[in-house]
Every structure is written in C-alpha cells, then in structure tokens.
C-alpha cells in the first residue's frame, strides 16, 4: 500500500462540477492499493499518516507536529495509478488491486482512519469516479510512504523510486 502525502493549506475533490469533499489545513493523501495488500499494510499506513511530523510547532521549529497534534484534516483520494509499471510508453496497472476488491479495501481503510482519529476530520473522494483534485500545497511538501511488505528487497532506482519512509 502506498500513500502520497501532500501538506496543504486547503484541498477539494470535485466530480461532475460538484464539490464532494473539501478540507482546510492538513494533508491531501493519494492512496494506492497493491494487489497483494493486507490488513497489516492498511494498519501501517493509517499509523504512519497519523503520526508523521509534517508541521511546525508553536516556535516555528520544523517537522515537529503531526496532523493529530495540530487537529488538522485529511482528504484521501483513491488512486490506482500509483501502482503503475511501464510497457514502452504506456502505463500498465496490473500491480494495482482489482477494482471490485480495492473498493472494499479502500472503504475499510477510510473507516480505520476515522476510528483512529476523528471521523469529521477525515474526508474522501468518490471511489472509481473521474475526479478533479485541487490543492494549495503548503511548502510545497510532498512525501511518499509505502508499507514495509512492498519496500523490503527493493533497491532504489533513480528513475522510478524516491526516498522511502521506514519504521
């Protein structure tokens, strides 16, 4: 499982010109679900999202406070394209979990995130819909987290991989 985290001043998801969800300061998180993901991957991503320190403290010291510490909001958007590979110049998504399974998995993820934080602070888009995601990136700061089952035995490739946050 993969989370692409964007620290934001605000963010919103629109479907067919209708705003579905919006947040003020916090994080817009793109969620990729791999075909081999389990509940352990989900638990890891939820734990990391709520504990990583993305924000300054009251003395403006950087990277000191989490979303929970600041009581900020989270906007999650399912994005199967995070698990792409390339076939020539065309993206291939066979590593992503199939839509029928991933919808339930994603809904469980959102439910777990709400249970571990505050339900009213966790928003999301519409699974499987064609969405427009608008953000005002804060920093800009964009970070990636991938569950350990996908980072073990992985060697960095400067063309495809960035830094990976580990426990």
Q: Layout of helices and strands, plus pairs?
A:
Layout: E1 2-15, E2 18-23, E3 26-32, H1 39-51, E4 53-55, E5 65-66, H2 67-70, E6 73-78, E7 85-87, E8 90-92, H3 99-116, E9 122-124, E10 132-146, H4 148-151
Parallel strand pairs: 3-6, 6-9
Antiparallel strand pairs: 1-2, 1-3, 1-10, 4-5, 7-8
Helix pairs in contact: 1-3
Keywords: Cytoplasm, Hydrolase, RNA-binding, tRNA-binding
Biased composition (Polar residues): 148-160
Family: Belongs to the DTD family.
Keywords:
single chain, 167 residues, alpha+beta, D-tyrosyl-trna(Tyr) Deacylase, Chain: A, six-stranded mixed beta sheet
What does this structure look like?
- This protein has 167 residues and is of the alpha+beta class.
- The chain has one domain (2-146): D-tyrosyl-tRNA(Tyr) deacylase (D-tyrosyl-trna(Tyr) Deacylase, Chain: A), CATH 3.50.80.10.
- It is 23% helix and 37% strand.
- The protein has four helices and ten strands, in the order βββαββαβββαββα.
- The strands form three sheets. Strands 1, 2, 3, 6, 9 and 10 form a six-stranded mixed β-sheet that branches. The protein has a two-stranded antiparallel ribbon with strand order 4-5.
- Helix 1 (39-51) packs across helix 3 (99-116).
- The longest helix is centred in the middle third of the chain and has 18 residues, at 99-116.
- The radius of gyration is 16 Å and the shape is globular.
- The two termini are 15 Å apart.
- The model is unreliable at 155-167 (pLDDT under 50).
- Residues 148-160 have a biased composition (Polar residues).
- GO terms for molecular function: D-tyrosyl-tRNA(Tyr) deacylase activity; Gly-tRNA(Ala) deacylase activity; tRNA binding.
- It is found in: Cytoplasm.
- It comes from Papilio xuthus (Asian swallowtail butterfly).
- This is D-aminoacyl-tRNA deacylase.
